[in-house]
Amino acid sequence: MRHFDLCIIGSGSGNSIPDERFADLEIALVDKGTFGGTCLNVGCIPTKMFVYPADLAASVEPAERLGVELQLNKVRFAEIRDRIFGRIDPISAAGEQWRGANPNVTLYRAEAHFTGPKTLDTGTGETITADQFVLAAGSRVLIPDIPGLDSVTAHTSDTVMRLDELPGSMIIIGGGYIAAEFAHIFSAFGTRVTILNRSGALLRTEDADVSSRFTELISRRVDVQLDRTFERVERLPGDRVRVTSADRDGRSTSVEADVLLLATGRVPNGDTLNLAATGVEMDDEGYVVVDQHQRTTAEGIFALGDLSSNHQLKHVANHEMRVVQHNLLHPAAMIESDHRFVPHAVFSEPQVASVGLTEQEATAQGVRYVSVIQDYGSIAYGWAMEDTDHFAKLLADPDTGLLLGAHLIGPQASSLIQPLIQAMSFGLPAREMARGQYWIHPALAELVENALLALPLGDDQ
Ligand SMILES: Cc1cc2nc3c(=O)[nH]c(=O)nc-3n(C[C@H](O)[C@H](O)[C@H](O)COP(=O)(O)OP(=O)(O)OC[C@H]3O[C@@H](n4cnc5c(N)ncnc54)[C@H](O)[C@@H]3O)c2cc1C
Ligand SMILES: NC(=O)c1ccc[n+]([C@@H]2O[C@H](COP(=O)([O-])OP(=O)(O)OC[C@H]3O[C@@H](n4cnc5c(N)ncnc54)[C@H](O)[C@@H]3O)[C@@H](O)[C@H]2O)c1
């Protein structure tokens, strides 16, 4: 049985671990799927490459309001798709080729599982052992249990970006990140989109003000049906689908469409690895349990990313990868992951970005706070945009003036939030942040400056 110094399962963030500092270690890298993992192949990167042209296509109506008449003539969907994957697929292939050529790295391209302590069946017919393991096997799409689902073609984020042609109509089941982003992409391109959501608001884990505003705004472009209980899915001629669901009062209605997209969450892949054989514990939700050093409950086995983190975000997986990398190299001086202020953004229309406590979380935790809502329309750049829909909401500690949370909905929210993340990460109080630096006038960032100044903090803050 071949023995390695290090075995990494998962070529997403896990693939970034071996650099020149690992050159004298014999490393096995195991992955069953497309090399490079979710973000590169079916996640962050292709979705955002679709979002950008969708933003352009969606600019007709806002331009009209400003006196600029645009016309959307045609979206060349197949061309967009082929441009995106024509760029991504070669990156994945080149990454695999380069990694496979590393003299100290052996690639195993199959589904692996543990058969004993630090003993892995690589799925290729070869079983290996290693001194240390890194579990970076990510998460997979959750398929909901709805009668009839197996009788239709049900797309997920893994497949919907490779459709042959732009569908005339689409039903999206779910109301989280993926539903929000694909509803924007396809509706901007001209598809009639219906979102069927189990709960009473879209993006319901956001601050309630953001969630309700997002639901209101996207409902102008997309048919949004909330509080649905799913009864059945049926296949119609031409591979179309019909979804029947009931509202809160039990009244059933059906929607028909060309394409069905399931966007009902992702589950960690720990259950596929037979982790009990090597003494690695998972929690009740199936995430691998790790400590602050990313160590699992088994000595010499680390875990990172979606497999062990319910944030399910690439920047978190990458951060944890760097922690694992350091801790493998410096076992006597391990560092800790920093999950204090994990931000996220939803690249829909409107964009949403958030970091820290929502108002409902602050209330539930008994945290004292002051808050402010600052409209885009209140600053000069917002006048230029004639904005009436979007805002930034801040929460701060009334005693220290430190920010507790920031929640933005509107243009460039994913970039505008960055200085607020920085302030929280480095402990910069709101007033000091607002007045201790110049803010370029009349840039959109004045939204952040004005929100900071509008926080009802005492004069000493
Ligand atoms: C549509 C979509 C859009 C997203 N957009 C964003 C975004 O904009 N920003 C953001 O921060 N995050 C985004 N995410 C989330 C982000 O993609 C993930 O958080 C991130 O990719 C997780 O990285 P990872 O290394 O943990 O796992 P992955 O990248 O999923 O890598 C895991 C690898 O393990 C392999 N594997 C699994 N089981 C086994 C096994 N038993 N044996 C061998 N190999 C195995 C898989 O084939 C896979 O290649 C998005 C996700 C999706 C689905
Ligand atoms: N911009 C980004 O950072 C980005 C973009 C896309 C995805 N992601 C990551 O991918 C993960 C998965 O995204 P997602 O949108 O699938 O998940 P999500 O957790 O954001 O939303 C899941 C939605 O499905 C609904 N749902 C769950 N189970 C259901 C069921 N059985 N029947 C009906 N509805 C059900 C939930 O109520 C929720 O509305 C996210 O958690 C996120 O971390 C991130």
TrEMBL record:
Xref: PROSITE patterns: PYRIDINE_REDOX_1 (PS00076)
Enzyme Commission code(s) on record: 1.8.1.15
Cofactor(s) required for function per UniProt: FAD
UniProt-recorded name of the protein: Mycothione reductase
Source species, domain of life: Bacteria
Keywords attached to this entry: Disulfide bond, FAD, Flavoprotein, NADP, Oxidoreductase, Redox-active center
Taxonomic lineage: Bacteria, Bacillati, Actinomycetota, Actinomycetes, Propionibacteriales
GO molecular function: mycothione reductase [NAD(P)H] activity
Major enzyme class: oxidoreductase
Recorded family membership: Belongs to the class-I pyridine nucleotide-disulfide oxidoreductase family.
Domain Pyridine nucleotide-disulphide oxidoreductase dimerisation: 342-451
Domain called FAD/NAD(P)-binding: residue spans: 4-317
